[in-house]
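G., before I forget:
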Amino acid sequence: MAIHYAMSRSAFLDVKWAALHTVRESFSLEQHYNPYFELIAVTEGPVHLQAEEEKVVLHAGDTFLLRPWERHKGWNPAAQGGEFYWVQFAATPEPRPFDFAKDRLPVGLEAPHGPSDLRTVPAYRDETMIVPRRFRSSGRFHLLGLFEQLVREMDEAKGYYRYRSSLLLGTMLERLASDLLGHVRQETTLPASYVTYRSLVSLLDNQYPSSLTRETLEAQLDRKYEYLCGVFKKYAGMTIGAYVRHLRVQRAQYLLQATEDSVQSIAAEVGIADPFTFSKLFKKLVGRSPADYRNEIRNKPRCPDEG
DNA sequence: AATGGGTCGAAGCTTAGATT
DNA sequence: AATCTAAGCTTCGACCCATT
């Protein structure tokens, strides 16, 4: 039963300290604890580490993540000479425990589908990565190299060293999470209908302005149109028509902003012949008419925030 | 002249349930 | 689980007119 932590990919990381530690007798005698997360990577094993009641033996390349305030020490006084890197850090928002059995897999970790596959849907604000508590990374030498750099940064402590340290830590955590993802993916087999879905999305993305009729789709994908609707809805969470409409409006938004084309010609370009119909659709999705939208964008060079 | 808005029916789309 | 069928729902765009 492995323990994992879910942490936001956009979490703010703050490295408190990093160092290389050589295991001596005192390591087994003293309890250590601190208010931060602490990531340990063993350079030379074995290291006998006890975290609260949990006793582990870590070998070269193994990593271990301690929770804030978690008491830890060595548990085998006879074993000396091991070495490990450690880095203490705070993360905002804080990583939380993650249970593969109970918690829903975050986007990107499950079979790689979902709304973020769709162009018009913004990427998830809180993309999560799963960091294992105890792990042996396939790129452990790379990881140890990063640790080495991190410790050097802390030792020299020049310029933007805290910023650079945070970046290094971020890379390390991402590395662990990616490796874990690789392991999980191998165990996951993709549903057959998912392949159909991907081809469908690709087709829609590339051909939405032209006349995408049900016959075209049926011919290109060799499936009944009604079935494609079902598959698309299942994976994307929205209907084909809705998606194409979003694509058209998004393209139109860009054209309104970047060109001086008339609403009529923009309507034609995104595949809606009737400008009246286009205008209505645009207002429905954006909340403003095309002309209003263009004026607003021109007057306020800020990013639009409508959904 | 260009654009925004309302109504309505045919065409197109979606979904529940059947079928393989 | 993947696919199809049939029924019912939704939308597009033609036709109006109003506003700038």
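Residues 213-214, 225-226, 229-230, 233, 239-241, 262-264, 275-276, 279-280, 283, 289-291 of chain A lie near DNA strand B (CB under 10 Å from a C1'). Residues 107-113, 302-307 of chain A have pLDDT under 50 and may be disordered.

More on Monday.
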